[in-house]
Amino acid sequence: MLRMLVIALLLAGPAVADIRELVPEAVLKQIAEETSGEEAKRNLDTLTLQHRMRASSQFDDATSHILRKLESYGLDEVSTLEYAADGKTMFGTQKSRPVWKVNFAELWELKDDGGQRTRSRRLASWEAVPLSLAQDSLSGEATTMLVDIGGGTADADYAGKDVRGKFVLTSSQPEIVVERAVGELGAAGIVSYAANQRSAWWKQDDRLVRWGHLSSFPKTKTFAFMVSLGEARRLQERMAGGEQILLHGKVDATHERGHYRFATARIKGADPQKSAEEILFTCHLDHPRPGANDNASGCVSILEVARTLNKLIDEGTLLRPARSIRFLWPAEIEGSIIFLSQHKEPSLIKANIHMDMVGGGPETKAVFRISGGPISLPTFISDLGFEVGRFVNEQSEAFAGGADVAFPLIATEGGKEPQLALMEGLDMGSDHDVFREGSWRIPGLYLHDWPDRYIHTNFDTAAMIDPTKLKRAAFIGAVNALFLAGFSNEHVPAVLAMLRKNALYRSAELVERLKPLEPADKSAVARVHFTVERRKIHSVESFAPLAERLHDEAADFVARLEALVARPAAAHASTNDTVYRRDPKIPGPMSGFGFDYMEDRYGADRYAQLRLPKYAGSHGSGGEYVYEALNFVDGKRTVSEIRDWLTAELGPVPVETVAEYLEALHSIGVINPVD
User: What is the pLDDT of residues 378-399, one digit of tens each?
Assistant: First the structure.
């Protein structure tokens, strides 16, 4: 019976075989042939020469390169957007960070030669390896001994050790130990070998110098140097053998007032009534040198999309789409919050395509991913992105296996490996989180690599980047953007067919996911699942009208599928009927970049006591729970219903844990109860 009904549902309408049912093959061919992985790689080579800290002179130099290229490509409205970087101005939930200016920084080991101290070897240099100075270090100088404090977060780490006036060696991020080691106990400075991104390879290569951080808004002003794990182990071995290690460190660095300057340009839409609507490409331009995959790769890939589409449209090979396509190169997360909080009409941004790490070659161990976004923002755009991704997967895998295919999508200077992209839902960690957040609810796609064994290290170099992957990322972005920019009534039936096909696959996955759940959770999760499917159908209406007949057919399909899969059960005995509404005067996520609105307003100590930020579910972790909990606040859902949506997406969670977090948000005015 189940098999027969599934077959009947499949036969209810044509299924989309691949992206060629939505985009003509001739159009795909033109984009594939024009997109150049080599052009993108040459731009990447230039960007990786700059230490691109937010609002810095080298960030501006990288921006200037982007602007020159955009002008040479003939883009419309090439300009910069300028905002205060003063350490004071609030942009929604993001406090503007000051400019961090570094003139000099070096750390030397000294040797005592008959009472004469001379420099023995250099452990860190801002000029040679900027990553060897922790971000937001400030001026200071000291000549003193080194003391190993391990993690530096527990009393036992300091037991029997005199750190006053000494350098402390720690496995923790400098920002974690600064108040204890320097602020309370008087250490002169910090030497850290912290790993800020863990993967299966994180301790395998002990040469790597990793990105370290101090606060942009420091209570205790100091400096910190970063050394490799191998260097730290050698220092520890010498100290364990009774040797005293004498260091001299000097830093000339300040926090100053300045400006964020973000490059932007657009391809103007052809329809006078729709050209104000935009498909927006973003990346993040800021990163320590070299920062090749993270994130010069995303920056040059959207630059290549701009060149490719503008050229094909200008020469008449492709029709100019109705809507405009805009490109933006901001600072990570903070720049996107600033941009959206200052935007006159964010609702005109119909979709966001974000690229952050899209070029990692085989040596990086990178796995390419396409994220369609959270269930708090159901959209057909995720299905569209997945169709393009699957198309690239199939074509590139067949080509790698020796078949002749129409779309191998390889660069002459790049690899020939299959793409094998993974398709995902919620995947957090970059600017896309800002656009999809409940303040703006802008749907879209997130293209990225994970893992990457060299992320946030001095080995994230241009040599590790594959031009073929840059070409494929640009192709995927360009196809999605062109379709969305030109989406009209004629595309609706094919998009609904795509949603119908994918609803079957998702519902089959749902059946497996329901098996281990309690009866009440089974019912709640199934109910949420099919609500999401219905809202995907309605998401089409933001681009084109949905005729009543087409709507009814699509809704009927979902209803029959729900009747097949879902089984009603008793509701949860514990309920919380409180309904909250978001305060529109506080737009943005609770955690930005270098500033956490929630901790700042609620208090770090109190925040640490909340259960939801630390909660580990079967399909998600604390950061995802708190992000979605606020996104689900819509003035209609009860706390219990928000709990059900979180359970459906991330795994079962107690309603009391959710209620506690929402009440904390209420206490700082972010949300308020509906009367």
Answer: 999 999 999 999 999 999 999 9
